[in-house]
Amino acid sequence: MKHSYPVENLRGLAILFVVLSHEGSVRGMPGVGEYVHFFLSDATSWFVFISGFLFHHTQHDRFSYPRYLARKFQVIVLPYLLLSVIAIALGIALSRPQFLGVSVPGYVAWSLVVGGAMVPPLWFIPMISLVFGLSFVFIRLSRTWLIHGLALVGLVFTVFSERPFENLNPLLALLHFIGFYLAGIVCSVHAPAIARLKGTPASRVLMVAGAVWFAVAATGFFTFGQTANTFAEGLGHLNFRQLGKVGLLVTVFLLFQEFLDRPNPVLGYFARLSFGLYFIHGFLMLIFQKVLERAPIAQSPSLVYFAVETAFVLGLSVLLAEAAKFTLKARSRYVIGY
Known about the structure:
The protein is mainly α and 338 residues long. The protein contains 17 helices and no strands. One of its GO terms (biological process) is enterobacterial common antigen biosynthetic process.
């Protein structure tokens, strides 16, 4: 199994997009904030695409359902459960059960199922856990031509639907994002053919087409705005953000195939750190919003405020992940996924 450096580097870029898109100060950039946010937002779709690619790339010839689930439980679900203890305790301390009108046991159970009840980015783990559970279906589909049609249908559904409200329904989130996961599998199936596009006119044409696709989607978004805020509202309505992410993914994926098919120390590092950042940055985001947004620094010029938030959320996430790695050694993977 050949290591895929373009996908590794794309994973590093995707986690940076995810973290930066969650920073409130991005939209506050004078004149360009909304455009930068549109460029960065919904990078979770790329994460899902990468998950599908790596699933097939690493498992297509050695898949064992029990072993696969056991591994995912150790490095993704177990850290989620451990960190959820902190998130749920914080929610209880802030009287979230009373606010929602549920009992404390009900709040605990609901929080574990939806993930993002208190720390928003944690919603991703219940959703991707459903994907892990269906892995035996995906590995069978990857051996048939049916996967191509399903990936196309899934992507069409993605761009004509919306995330569930506040990302608090993992099943609806799965339906919304599954097209990207299946597309990742398809790209892994055809990885040798995609690699042969490197340096060809066809690759250049596809890169330009993807960029134009993204520009058209951006124009649509800033002309018509976001058409829906919930899964139900979004059904049948064009999702310009996801449409743009499809086009941009084509361009970036092919660019990385051509120019980053080799180790990159920065992107490779963030790729290895990706789940650690995903787990930690949500807590720091919450602290920043609750504490520092009320401090005098919040009155600073927008670019200064963005730099401060990035240093706090991204920089401190990296430091905490490395501190956990240094302290716990290999066991840190079972606590923060890194």
